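Weekly sync, protein design subgroup
Attendees: M.S., D.O., the rotation student, P.L. (late)

Item 1: inverse folding check
M.S. brought a backbone from last month's batch and wanted to see whether the design step gives back something sensible before we order anything. D.O. pointed out we never logged the input encoding, so this time it goes straight into the notes. Structure tokens as presented (337 positions):
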């Protein structure tokens, strides 16, 4: 497997780059990062910022994956559900650090989601972890989900079950085979490059199209977290020895209902639209999700810096720019939280 070059990324945010350089300095300069899921939502925000910090970045993504920007030349086409492909990727990248973002994000409760999430989220992660045993890699940051239940609670979707199983296997690889694992548990991420069927981009696009958002009851309490705060947390995990073996919540620690989120987004857009509540059913057994960031602050020294209003404003600006450049329109309903 031949490593690609690293051309400049067209989606790079210079303002964010300056802030990251001020916060992280040269801590990651010349280190080799392997980022799976590099053409996904978080990957498209993370990879250019790593490059701005002087890191050497090798991305990996499914051969047919389609992000919101053209696939950069430094992204390798790899299917991690193929054990040999995962091994070849690690041998080629020789990473100092790994951020594992790849997976199928689909929280629908349909039984036809069981095997796809099992394959992409569990088998793909196991193949990657097995390929890293005995390598020089000094940190593997895996991304779980707030959908993953707390101990003693059963998962309420195939996606949540696959992430719970992934965390269990990651703990085993850390305990038995000394793979230096840290688990990130993000809460309701939003920001540039996110697919339009997720909550906040859906609300933004409905506002742009002057179409009332169609939501569930709107009563669920969530913890909206701006993607650049999550990227910051990933970098803190990549350098913190105290976080090894831990699952670390990433969020603001403040809960807000889906209906309140809708109201704030539409108000920030200057829209007088009102969401249509109970237009779609609430999902079975779904619980409120608010990050407990006390451990996160204690172990990592990390705190969120983006307010909800600032993050939403930046997201609105990005989606308006995307619309002006012809990148699609709003879906007709909100699929997932």
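Designed sequence read out in the meeting:
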């Amino acid at each position: 497997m031949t490593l690609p070059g690293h051309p400049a990324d067209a989606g790079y945010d210079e303002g964010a780059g300056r802030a990251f350089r001020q916060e992280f300095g040269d801590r990651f300069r010349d280190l080799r990062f392997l980022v799976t899921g590099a053409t996904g939502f978080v990957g498209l925000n993370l990879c250019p910022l790593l490059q701005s910090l002087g890191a050497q970045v090798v991305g990996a993504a499914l051969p047919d994956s389609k992000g919101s920007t053209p696939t950069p030349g430094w992204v390798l086409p790899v299917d991690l559900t193929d054990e040999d492909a995962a091994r070849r990727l690690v041998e080629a990248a020789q990473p100092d650090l790994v951020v594992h973002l790849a997976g199928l994000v689909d929280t629908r409760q349909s039984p036809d989601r069981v095997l796809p999430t099992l394959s992409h989220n569990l088998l793909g992660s196991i193949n990657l972890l097995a390929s890293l045993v005995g390598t020089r890699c000094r940190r593997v940051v895996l991304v779980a989900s707030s959908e993953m239940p707390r101990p003693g609670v059963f998962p309420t979707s195939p996606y949540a079950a696959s992430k719970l199983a992934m965390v269990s296997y990651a703990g085993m690889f850390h305990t038995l085979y000394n793979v230096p694992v840290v688990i990130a548990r993000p809460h309701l991420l939003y920001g540039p490059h996110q697919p339009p069927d997720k909550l906040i981009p859906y609300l933004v696009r409905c506002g742009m199209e002057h179409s009332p958002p169609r939501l569930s009851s709107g009563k669920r309490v969530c913890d909206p977290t701006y993607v650049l705060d999550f990227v910051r947390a990933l970098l803190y995990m990549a350098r913190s020895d105290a976080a090894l073996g831990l699952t670390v919540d990433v969020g603001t620690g403040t809960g807000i209902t889906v209906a309140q989120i809708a109201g704030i987004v539409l108000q920030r857009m200057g829209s007088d639209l009102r969401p249509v509540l109970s237009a779609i059913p609430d999902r079975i057994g779904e619980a409120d999700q608010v990050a407990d960031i006390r451990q996160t602050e204690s172990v990592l020294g990390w705190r969120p810096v983006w307010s909800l209003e600032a993050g939403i404003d930046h997201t609105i600006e990005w989606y308006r720019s995307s619309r002006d450049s012809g990148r699609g329109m709003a879906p007709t309903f909100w699929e997932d939280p």
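Discussion: Residues 5-10, 325-337 have pLDDT under 50 and may be disordered. Residues 94 and 277 are 50 Å apart (CA to CA).
Action: P.L. to compare against the previous round before Friday.
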